[in-house]
Amino acid sequence: MADEREGPRPNRGPAAAADNRRALIAAAREEFAAGGLEVAFSAIARRAGVGQGSLYRHFPTKIELAAAVFEDNIDELERAGSLDALFDAIVAQARMSAAFLDAVVSARDVPAVQHIGERMAVLVGALLAADQAAGRVDGAIAREDVLLVVTMLARTVAAAAPEEQADVLTRSRALFARALSPR
Question: Is residue 171 part of a domain?
Fold first, then answer.
């Protein structure tokens, strides 16, 4: 008996759209984490098991795809209960975060990118206010300061060689803790 998976998959048409979108986002997360934003669209489509036409229908540009991936990451970041927990989550997502930060720099006017930036600003503002109220962060620290720290942390950890990332993380976190602590 032949394996049912042999040959082309049946075309499910519009019914497959949501599954294809999820598969594309998951594939893009893995590909971006491994190779940054330079990864080819064809590699993402192949990993997702869909054609490039499907990829372009969902995400006409790489920036929009990166924004969709980071939108999912923001959901995880929103579960952070403090700036420390946020920094830990950013580090866990560092490679993808750095890729998205590169996208943000080059595409500030893309609505999907603006939306992510707004969500991140709201999240950081809420966590900062809570940490300041608890006396863990200096009251003079502004939301923009913490956003800068997040950007620096993601880029620094992502740029470090894999064998150096733990040390870079430890040193970066110590510096940021001193910089943000109450005076």
Answer: yes
